Each structure stands twice: as structure tokens, then as C-alpha cells.
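Students often ask why inverse folding is considered easier than folding. One informal answer: many sequences map to the same fold, so there is more than one right answer. In these notes we will look at a single instance of the problem. The structure comes first.
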């Protein structure tokens, strides 16, 4: 990608990868410019989302961002708190996060995934006004959808390694599998 192509992707909206009946709807903060330019979520090479999904057991192999639609076969999806693409998440205003939280709530009410997994506890805190939220399952629900705050897979999040992130993502996978086992009406 040239700098001009990346710059042209600013403020684009990246379509969600969603369907009804999802086990987990992963929710990023917002698309980066490379993701918006390519049309693929978590496309930046340093982003650890795709390796962590595999390491945690959500996918049988490491998917490339261009294979994002394959997530639906595993009853997984991707959306974002804020839809518009920026170079950095700190370009987003608090109001955009709050509005994103309202839009995300409506989307979850419509799609009714078993779990909403927000990848970035700070984004979760800001979007939902939960200033004390920590990584892990949350008390808040959206209808029957449970919420889990996960570490941000960005390469800039040096506090978490791919292995430690995979352990946290695997905790969610285990919870989602046990939820599936308890839901007779879920495909």
C-alpha cells in the first residue's frame, strides 16, 4: 500500500463479518487504515488477532485477514465499536465511543450472539461507561448476550504476549463452548 492509498482509506467504514447465531462476536476498537484499504479486519501485520484466535483454539489453523469470512463457519464474527477508519484509535473522541456503544448495543440486540468480546478493555470502558471494568467476563449483558473484555491484540499492546493473550481468549472459548452446550435452541 502506498501512503496515498492508506490516506484515502481514512474515515472509510469496513463492513462487519456477521450473521445470526454466532457463538462469539469479536468487537475491535475501530478499523485501521490498512484494514479499511484492504477490506479486511485486523489486517496490519503486527496485529496479533489472527494468530491469537488460532493459538486459543477458536480456529483450527491461522487464518489470514483475507479469509475473514471463514470465521462464520466457526460461528464467529467481527465488528467494531466505532465504524470509521483512522490511523490511530486515539483519533476517536469520547462521544464517538459512546455513540459506538449505542450502535453496538443495537447490533447485538439484532444478531443475538452468545458472547460479545470487546478486544480492548479501554474501548469497552469508554463505550459502555464501565470505568472499572477489567479483562474477563463482565456483569453487564445485552439481552441474553454475555460480554467479555479481552486484551487488545495490537502490536502496540506490549503488556500482553501472543501466548498470554491466547490464554485469555481460550478462557472465553471455554465459556462459549459451555454456553453452547447449555443452549438447546442454538445451532
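Output (designed amino acids):
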Amino acid at each position: 500500500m502506498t501512503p496515498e492509498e492508506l490516506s484515502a482509506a481514512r474515515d472509510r467504514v469496513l463492513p462487519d463479518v456477521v450473521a445470526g447465531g454466532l457463538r462469539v462476536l469479536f468487537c475491535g476498537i475501530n478499523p485501521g487504515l490498512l484494514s479499511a484499504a484492504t477490506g479486511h479486519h485486523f489486517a496490519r501485520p503486527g496485529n496479533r488477532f489472527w494468530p491469537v484466535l488460532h493459538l486459543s483454539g477458536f480456529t483450527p489453523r491461522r487464518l489470514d485477514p483475507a479469509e475473514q469470512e471463514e470465521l462464520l463457519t466457526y460461528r464467529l464474527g467481527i465488528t467494531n465499536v466505532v465504524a470509521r477508519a483512522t490511523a490511530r484509535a486515539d483519533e476517536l473522541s469520547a462521544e464517538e465511543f459512546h455513540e459506538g456503544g449505542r450502535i453496538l448495543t443495537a447490533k447485538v440486540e439484532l444478531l443475538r450472539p452468545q458472547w460479545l468480546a470487546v478486544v480492548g478493555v479501554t474501548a469497552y470502558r469508554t463505550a459502555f461507561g464501565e470505568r472499572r471494568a477489567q479483562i474477563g467476563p463482565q456483569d453487564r449483558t445485552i439481552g441474553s448476550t454475555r460480554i467479555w473484555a479481552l486484551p487488545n491484540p495490537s502490536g502496540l499492546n506490549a503488556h500482553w504476549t501472543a501466548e498470554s493473550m491466547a490464554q485469555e481468549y481460550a478462557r472465553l472459548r471455554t465459556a462459549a463452548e459451555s454456553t453452547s452446550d447449555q443452549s438447546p435452541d442454538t445451532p
